[in-house]
Design a protein that fits this description.
The chain is mainly beta and about 500 residues long. Helices cover about 5% and strands about 55% of the residues. The protein is elongated and about 140 Å long.
C-alpha cells in the first residue's frame, strides 16, 4: 500500500474517534441537565386551623424539594395555641419540604379566674370560686347567715344565685345586711317563658327601686300586677312587696282595622289608618288644604294629630270645612236707606249686596268708591261695605246753591264759601275746627277718620243742629248740597 494512502486512512480514523468522544460528552451534559430538572419539582404545603373560631394558621403554598418554609398559628382572644398535628408545640416553626404535607394547628381555651368574695364573712358565705375556660357559664351564689339577708353584688346585680359568662379574670363581692328594718321586694314574671323581671331584693325603708320587665321574642309586656303600664318604673319600698310583670304572646292578640277617611278630599286628606294588633298605639293626622280647617273627627274628638289605642275595628272621618269670612253691609244712615247681603260666607264665595234708599233719598256709592248697586263681591277676607245715601230735595236757600262740601281720605273740601265761616263738629257735637278766613275754596285735613258735621254760615260757631240734612263720603266728585252737611272720612 502506498505511503500516501496509509496517511489518509490514519487521518480518517483519528477524526472518527474525535467525533465519538465529542458525542459522548454531549450525552453526559444532557443527562446532567435532566437530573438537575428533576430536583426542581414543587410540593404543596397546606396549613389549617382545627377550629376557625379559636385561631388562624398561615404558611400554605408550593415549595421546591429541599427548601424551608415557615408556618404560624395565631390564637384569638380567649384561646391559646396548643400544638400542631405532628406534635410540635411551637406556634411558629420552620419545616423542610420533602413532599406534599398538611399541618393543622390546634387551639384550646384559656382559663380565667373567678374570685367570689363576701363583704363580711360574719354575715354570709359565697360559692363559685375557681378557674374556668373562656366563655364558660358559671353559677355563683351567696348564702346569708342567720339574721342577715343577701343585699346585692358589687356590680349592682341583685340576682342570687346568678350566672356569669367567663370572658376575663373577674372579682365579685357579695354584700349582706341585717334583716331588721329591711323590706323584701319580690319581682316576678307571670310566665318565665314569655319574659323576665328585675328588681328583687331587700331594701331599707323608703328606698326608691327601679323595676324593669323584658319580654322574650314573640311576646310583649302588658302591665304590672297593679295595673301600671310604665316600664321601667320606680317605686318606693315601705313594706314587703310583690310585683308581677304580666306578659302575653302576640299570637293571643287580635288584629283590628282602623279606617281613617276625609269627608271631602277637596278640603283635606288624612293618614294613619291600617291593620294593627290589639293594644297598639296609632297616630292619625288630618291635613287641611288651603282656606280649609278640620272641625272635628266623626267621633267628636277634636285633637289633631290624635292618638288611638287599638281595642277593636274603628272607622273615623275627619270633618273638614272651608274657612269663613264675615262681610258686613251697613248704611251710613238708616233714616236715608237700608242694606242687605251681609253675613258669614266660606272663603271664595260670590255674593250680592244691595242698598235701598228711602223716600227723598238716593244711593250715591259704596265706601269702596264703587257706585254699582246691587254689587257682586267675592268673600276673601273680613270686610265692611258702607252704603252712602244723599238727599233728593235740592237747595234750602239761595246761598246754599253756591256751596259744595265733600270728603276725600281724611280731608274735607269746601268751595263757594267766600265770605263765610266754616265750622266742623265731631260725631258727639263738639266743635273741632273753626275757619273764618272767608276764602272761596278751603281744604281741612282731620287728624282721624270719622263722621263730621260741616256748617257754612255768616255767623260765629253755633251748636250742632238737631237735624242733619245731607250726607257725603269719600267721593272725589263734587256734589251740590245744603250749607249743613254730614261728611264721613276714612283713615285709609
Amino acid at each position: 500500500m502506498p505511503m500516501k494512502t496509509k496517511h489518509v486512512i490514519l487521518l480518517f480514523a483519528f477524526a472518527l474517534c474525535c467525533n465519538i468522544i465529542f458525542a459522548g460528552q454531549k450525552a453526559v451534559e444532557s443527562f446532567n441537565t435532566v437530573c438537575s430538572n428533576v430536583t426542581d419539582v414543587l410540593y404543596t404545603i397546606t396549613v389549617l386551623s382545627a377550629d376557625d373560631t379559636r385561631g388562624a394558621a398561615t404558611g400554605s403554598g408550593q415549595f421546591a424539594q429541599g427548601t424551608n418554609c415557615t408556618i404560624t398559628a395565631v390564637a384569638y382572644y380567649g384561646y391559646k395555641f396548643k400544638r400542631w398535628n405532628d406534635g410540635d408545640t411551637s406556634s411558629s416553626r420552620t419545616v423542610t419540604v420533602t413532599g406534599n404535607a398538611t399541618y393543622v394547628a390546634e387551639f384550646e381555651a384559656r382559663k380565667f379566674y373567678l374570685n367570689v368574695m363576701t363583704g363580711n364573712y360574719l354575715q354570709g358565705s359565697v360559692a363559685g370560686n375557681g378557674y374556668y375556660d373562656y366563655r364558660t357559664s358559671v353559677v355563683v351564689s351567696a348564702t346569708p347567715r342567720q339574721g342577715f339577708v343577701f343585699s346585692h353584688w358589687s356590680d349592682g346585680n341583685r340576682s342570687n344565685p346568678r350566672r356569669m359568662l367567663m370572658t376575663k379574670d373577674t372579682a365579685l363581692i357579695a354584700y349582706f345586711m341585717p334583716i331588721a328594718n329591711r323590706h323584701h321586694l319580690m319581682v316576678t314574671s307571670n310566665d318565665s317563658e314569655k319574659g323576665s323581671a328585675r328588681g328583687t331584693g331587700y331594701y331599707y325603708d323608703s328606698t326608691l327601686v327601679l323595676l324593669s320587665a323584658t319580654a322574650f321574642e314573640g311576646n310583649r309586656f302588658v302591665a304590672w300586677g297593679d295595673g301600671e303600664t310604665a316600664n321601667p318604673r320606680t317605686i318606693m319600698i315601705t313594706k314587703d312587696t310583690l310585683f308581677m310583670a304580666i306578659f302575653e304572646s302576640y299570637q293571643s292578640l287580635m288584629e283590628y282595622t282602623v279606617n281613617v277617611s276625609s269627608n271631602d278630599e277637596q278640603m283635606g286628606t288624612v293618614s294613619g289608618g291600617g291593620r294593627f294588633t290589639e293594644g297598639d298605639t296609632v297616630i292619625v293626622v288630618a291635613y287641611p288644604k288651603a282656606h280649609c280647617h278640620i272641625m272635628r273627627w266623626s267621633d267628636g274628638n277634636c285633637d289633631n294629630p290624635r292618638t288611638i289605642v287599638v281595642a277593636g275595628n274603628m272607622n273615623i272621618t275627619a270633618l273638614f270645612a272651608s274657612d269663613s269670612v264675615t262681610i258686613n253691609v251697613v248704611s251710613i244712615d238708616e233714616s236715608m236707606g237700608f242694606v242687605s247681603g251681609g253675613g258669614t260666607y266660606p272663603i271664595g264665595t260670590e255674593l250680592t249686596i244691595s242698598a235701598t234708599p228711602r223716600d227723598g233719598y238716593r244711593f250715591s256709592h259704596w265706601n269702596t268708591i264703587v257706585a254699582t248697586n246691587p254689587l257682586t263681591v267675592t268673600a276673601l277676607y273680613d270686610r265692611t261695605y258702607i252704603a252712602i245715601f244723599e238727599s233728593l230735595d235740592g237747595i234750602d236757600n239761595a246761598e246754599s246753591n253756591k256751596i259744595s262740601i265733600w270728603g276725600s281720605g281724611k280731608t274735607i273740601h269746601v268751595t263757594g264759601c267766600e265770605g263765610k265761616a266754616v265750622c266742623i263738629y265731631d260725631v258727639a257735637g263738639h266743635l273741632v275746627l273753626y275757619d273764618g278766613s272767608g276764602t272761596a275754596m278751603r281744604d281741612f285735613t282731620m287728624q282721624n277718620g270719622g263722621v263730621y258735621t260741616v256748617v257754612v254760615n255768616d255767623k260765629a260757631p253755633f251748636h250742632r243742629p238737631s237735624t242733619i240734612d245731607a250726607t257725603v263720603c269719600t267721593s272725589p266728585s263734587h256734589m251740590l248740597v245744603k250749607s249743613v252737611k254730614k261728611v264721613v272720612l276714612f283713615n285709609n
